[in-house]
Amino acid sequence: MESNLGTLLLAREDIFFLAQDYLDFKEAFQLMQTCRMACKYLNEDFFWHRCVRRKHLMLSIPPYIDWRLRTVEEKAFQENVEPYFKKLDDLAEQLQVWPAISLPSVDTLCAERSSSGDAVLSKLSVMEQAKVTWLFSKGIESYERKDLALSRKYLMAALDIAPTHDIILCRLGDTEFSLLHEINDEATKVEGKIQTKALYTKALACNPYSAYAYNGLALFEEDRKVKYSFMITALRLNPLCSYALANLGMELEETQREYSIFFLELALLVNQNLFYARTSLALHYFQSHRFDDARKCLSEQVRRRPNDKTSARLLSYCAEIANSIAAGEEMSGSDSEASADELVISEEESLASVSAMGDLSLMED
Hints:
mainly alpha, 365 residues
């Protein structure tokens, strides 16, 4: 009996390490609270290295990329960004706006961005890094479900551990910006705007090359050229910043349809969970008489956002048109254009509020 007991006592550390094969982050933190021995062994760096590796979450959260794993399409785009940058430069020339800062070479920029995040995370223990990663990912998941109160809770907890990490500051700013639209009292809303803008400003002070910070600050700019400049700067710093892609696409809706479609399609390639980009893109398709593309776009939006009444109404209208075409009813170009104009007018109020919010309620993918 004594021999068996001794073997068990010697193996207890291995038992805790093996527990990571069955526990997620939250359960591991709960187990730590059950006894001092569990707390001791679950504080070991080795445990968290294994746990994080198994969960496919990064210990480091570089400030220039999303936390998600890259899709095949994103990787292909990232390896061939020159046509994208040319498109962005052509747009900047047409708008007569330029990046808000002087941009270094790509290699220097990547090194600067990496060192910014590493400097913050290097001060944390591995367990703290794992906890920040878990809190951050849960905050983004909650945000994209539009559970903004829960997103705020997770991201504020992450920020308590890493208060100068620019990407966490910005994502909390995104959540706070979305919550502003739930405030009715004007004085409270003004104060909320000041506090939200301060988060983006602090993020930029922590990392001068923060794409998310420039995208967030663009929301508060009334000067259209400055707004465009900040968005273009964000996309120069990070071509895969889905929120900047979506927001720029929506800003260009009325004046630059080709560019608007380009950036909205790219935003949805990077991040399928954007709130408003898909609806905006569907309107472009509709107005271009691409009814099947509009229907597919809206169907996906309604599937992902069942409570999106605007998209549901647009989808219903597209279905009526599809049925008419299938039934062989002729529809002249002028009639279809009039129908499209009529639809846009009927949705004007809803779409105006969408445009005012940007795609950060994600971003804002």
